[in-house]
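BUG-315 | component: ligand-complex export | severity: low

The export step for NDP jobs runs without errors, but we want the raw record kept on the ticket for reference. Input record follows.
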Amino acid sequence: MSETTEHIECLIVGSGPAGYTAAIYAARADMKPVMYAGMQPGGQLTITTDVENYPGFPDGVMGPEMMEMFRKQAERFGTDIRYGMITKVDFSGKPPYRLQVDEKHDILAETVIIATGASAKWLGIPSETKLNGRGVSACAVCDGFFFRGKDVAIVGAGDTACEEASYLAKICSKVYMLVRRDEFRASKPMQQRVLNTPNIEVLFDTETDEILGEDKVTGVRVKNRKTGATREIDIQGFFVAIGHQPNTEVFKPFITMDETGYIQTIPGTSKTNIEGVFACGDAQDKVYRQAVTAAGSGCMAALDAERYMAAKQTF
Ligand code: NDP
């Protein structure tokens, strides 16, 4: 570890809606936050197109543009935003905690706000990448509206896929649900909801061979895993709902998480099991996962950090 180590009051890890909101509040509270923006500054919203459900934007806003506005607002109050990844943490003992940036230099932080988000899992086929944002989406709540009155497909068989299929069924004329095994993974009530919805057709034992279309999605070629038979279905939207992976690996040795890596916070707060370490956004939320809920929890984390420091009065 390096010899010259910076000592700061508030470190924010991650730069999605949660991280930027935490930064705005922490900076305005004079905590002089330093933010490490991570591999994909701006987070998941930078890979979406129109955002129409974030309050305050009556005409909608493009995801990347919105994150740019978040960034400017955080900078306006003095947040020190840096490129880089936190590659190692040591939350043993009492604060300040030592964290390593890009395996190069160290930083000592009195408080740490984890806002590293989550990443959608993708199928990993080339047509999915090619048509991402052109009919391929990993968020039905964000993008379903664009397929109003159209036919869509959704892949996945867990609670998220069932919830999103039900959501899409209210907007779209027809929803094909592509389930790779001969059964769901979702809870029974969620399955029932799907099976009882007339405009959802569940195709079991079905995998995605290729998403069809040049500039936008026009169909999907699916394959029956038992018979090997392929079939093309006309659709305009293709939704992937095969789970998310929270970006929390680096904190695992110290922070209490559930079995899938979501950070557990004390209910009603952003506090983790470690004193002075707070978590917000999708890194700790597998249920709501919206920009607006992430931003709200970022605000909570900054307020919790500020109150924690005020109670200590040592920095
Ligand atoms: P899950 O991990 O539960 O389910 C993922 C689903 O995607 C599985 O059905 C899996 O299939 C399928 N899948 C994975 N990879 C592929 C692939 N390459 N091709 C096709 N299908 C694939 O993730 P969820 O996001 O659904 O849920 C995560 C957690 O959040 C769960 O604990 C869930 O209960 C919870 N949750 C709760 C909600 C609620 O209570 N309202 C709402 C949403 C989530 P297979 O079954 O064959 O492995």
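Assignee comment: Attached the raw record above. DSSP finds seven helices and 19 strands in the chain.
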